[in-house]
What we know:
Helix content is 43%, strand content 18%. The protein is α+β, with helices and mostly antiparallel strands. The radius of gyration is 37 Å and the shape is globular. Residues 121-220 form the P-type ATPase A domain.
Amino acid sequence: xxxxxxxxxxxxxxxxxxxxxxxxxxxxxxxxxxxxxxxxxxxxxxxxxxxxxxxxxxxxxxxxxxxxxxxxxxxxxxxxxxxxxxxxxxxxxxxxxxxxxxxxxxxxxxxxxxxxxxxxxxxxxxxxxxxxxxxxxxxxxxxxxxxxxxxxxxxxxxxxxxxxxxxxxxxxxxxxxxxxxxxxxxxxxxxxxxxxxxxxxxxxxxxxxxxxxxxxxxxxxxxxxxxxxxxxxxxxxxxxxxxxxxxxxxxxxxxxxxxxxxxxxxxxxxxxxxxxxxxxxxxxxxxxxxxxxxxxxxxxxxxxxxxxxxxxxxxxxxxxxxxxxxxxxxxxxxxxxxxxxxxxxxxxxxxxxxxxxxxxxxxxxxxxxxxxxxxxxxxxxxxxxxxxxxxxxxxxxxxxxxxxxxxxxxxxxxxxxxxxxxxxxxxxxxxxxxxxxxxxxxxxxxxxxxxxxxxxxxxxxxxxxxxxxxxxxxxxxxxxxxxxxxxxxxxxxxxxxxxxxxxxxxxxxxxxxxxxxxxxxxxxxxxxxxxxxxxxxxxxxxxxxxxxxxxxxxxxxxxxxxxxxxxxxxxxxxxxxxxxxxxxxxxxxxxxxxxxxxxxxxxxxxxxxxxxxxxxxxxxxxxxxxxxxxxxxxxxxxxxxxxxxxxxxxxxxxxxxxxxxxxxxxxxxxxxxxxxxxxxxxxxxxxxxxxxxxxxxxxxxxxxxxxxxxxxxxxxxxxxxxxxxxxxxxxxxxxxxxxxxxxxxxxxxxxxxxxxxxxxxxxxxxxxxxxxxxxxxxxxxxxxxxxxxxxxxxxxxxxxxxxxxxxxxxxxxxxxxxxxxxxxxxxxxxxxxxxxxxxxxxxxxxxxxxxxxxxxxxxxxxxxxxxxxxxxxxxxxxxxxxxxxxxxxxxxxxxxxxxxxxxxxxxxxxxxxxxxxxxxxxxxxxxxxxxxxxxxxxxxxxxxxxxxxxxxxxxxxxxxxxxxxxxxxxxxxxxxxxxxxxxxxxxxxxxxxxxxxxxxxxxxxxxxxxxxxxxxxxxxxxxxxxxxxxxxxxxxxxxxxxxxxxxxxxxxxxxxxxxxxxxxxxxxxxxxxxxxxxxxxxxxxxxxxxxxxxxxxxxxxxxxxxxxx
Length: 1109
């Protein structure tokens, strides 16, 4: 009933799906109709995964979804239910250990989340109820409550700003906890509520807010507020992101605000942004699963063979039922097939330890602990922002060592995103330098002191456009009683370009003073304050690539000022005005400057009334508001007059060129994906050495395609021509291609967004539906690719396209802005730069670093070492695959786990300085080289060889039935203990031989593990344990070591088992010396590569120590 009444006040608007209605203060807007409270979620934040009641079942369910855990559970159940040769403890205790450790780790992490949630949910807030400030806990806020927030407090939920302590109803907010932006943002209250600054007046407000349902985009909000007076006449105002105060943001430089809660708890934008992030899996994890399947097949094969051989052996009656071990009647009557099946399960249980259950825990610990080395690396620390590297996920550490393609943004990633105004052009006249006090603008470019200048009125119009067409804010407290010290003005904006342009205008005598009561104030060259009423702001977006403002002068004239990319502005101005400006724009772009074109338009009062009505209608729309506003913007921004253009320099980041060079030398392909125009991006690519002076560029741009009337035909011709050229130059093998880059002519590809759309969306009837495959063939043969004029979605499309190439190459994306988030999430590894465009990129990335230069060490050193360490760990666990229940249980848990964990955290088979100075070492491990079939077979052969030596060496020793002086005969348990002792010492000493980088921790865990084994063996066999039914190991170990023959056998078999490894070390040492000798002879002539700008690097002899196997 009330909804029908509400809709009656909103004439022309039918009931919409996907919106919610919020009553301010939870007061009905009409006293004559009943008010029914709506149900929304409470304001509790729940980031925890478990509760006290569901932790055990939910955690167990999640852990047993892992195939290895489920496998060992099945083995344990078989041991419990079937007569097997080993105790259920052998698989049950390691499984229990793994499950318990993982559960404790996950439970502790969840407890921390519970604690953090309670701190937020129990925090104190003030609600306005019945014209009083009521103190409540944050979790008790309901949608519709009016909340009071004071300075430096965090907003407890998503609020619509109703009023503030300021006269104009504005407040300043920082969103560092949401997107990392530390600069203050200005938010506004609608003009009908800004006077409600007291508790009594705000409580008397009768209004209803209709807005969209909760969604995660931090920068989008669509709604409207209907304010009711005593006459029940609704006044409707539009609401947008500038009116919404987000949970997690902090109120700054404003004493107090009142806001109404529209989204609470898990429906706030902050909560929605931290849910549902996709899980990425590394290539190593996929290899582990493949190895598990292989070893599972080996296990099944061994069990089947042993079962078969058993029944073949038992086919002889004497072997089947000897006189000393007669079968019972029940055994004779057992169904033979069932007996064979149980025997098969028994053999599976006997051999099940070739699949290491503890490997998953060790891998998780290695990844988690290893990630701290990135955070602790002082080389990643940046003094400017006082921050270092950040690891958002530790699951992809080793993937950093497997990257094939690097996709990078340009602005803010390769460049500083620190803009400096260089020059401008007005009506074709170039202005560069600082204005003289006597004559305003001056020309200081070139040898001539004075050149022709534009008309004085046009100069001032251009500078006023720079001062008015922006969203720059002046930092508070700079203006006192209308008097401003211009030199002390501090500008704030989310875009460094805008600040650079405003400062550029200030150099020439026009200073933007700030906004006061809806008027933009500008100080002109005569030190006079000009005021312009700000009527509308047509915001910038990546699709329109321009922004405009509509202002009203003191004389009543209505002007539109527009600035944007040349491709967005030129089609909307008079054709005869373009040529003079275009020359300067193209020249500045070639110099590497960022260019913007400035235009204006005078709007007649009648036209403005129509435009104003259209804008208000579009802003009031709840559905498709952005599309409707874009349509209105498109109609307004036509028939403009071009005034001039600006050139802003974005300096290249420190060591960006050296980093690009190193990545190329490491065999990585670097693609630059940018929204900038081609000339600017190309200049930057040359500056950062992505393109070399001898690089032949292949262009697929609108300019080259438009040479023909039929674009698709011309595109097909170019694609075919480029493919033929590259196929003649390079071999087909992608493995030899990396080396070929430094031996043949280099090629670079340039493509723009419109041509890419033509390739991806080519018509099927054109006979060129293979554009995409030809394009990919060309890209694979080029050393570098530049994609310019790219929309954010196109960046993600390119990454996805490369990910799906044959061979599934590993991709890495790096960027600093919100427009890079899509490609960061799409790639295998996402790197965020902690830049000046906010922290959206670093917040959505897997790793975040302060500068692009840090990518070099992150990949070439950390990535290389992480991959080698974990690959060795995985192979080692499958290599060290048995015996008494206690020994089987302790083997993977205690005897051999700590040395490999320490190795996988600390090993540096090559010095870090060598890894960073010789990028070619990165190619040695590319393509998951250490976990391919060859290394896998080597480790498997090594395990089989050593197992054979262990068994048969001990077997031959036991050909002498008496090994003790008193003639006592040793039995099976001594036989097994000897083998087990040799096994423990061999696999541990094998790791010691593999270790290149020794620390006290390595010494402690390696020699300590061996000492612990000896101690445990004496301890376990030296006591009669009352809980054991059979004391099989009693005094076995001590008695065994009393024999000199056994001592000699153990030492000899360990030496023989390790002989292949020692032989390989000797051969590698000989090869290293040979390489060192050759390098000393060729030192003067050898260099890192034939790339002209790559400096020669001395090849360290450690490069041959890359342990491929």
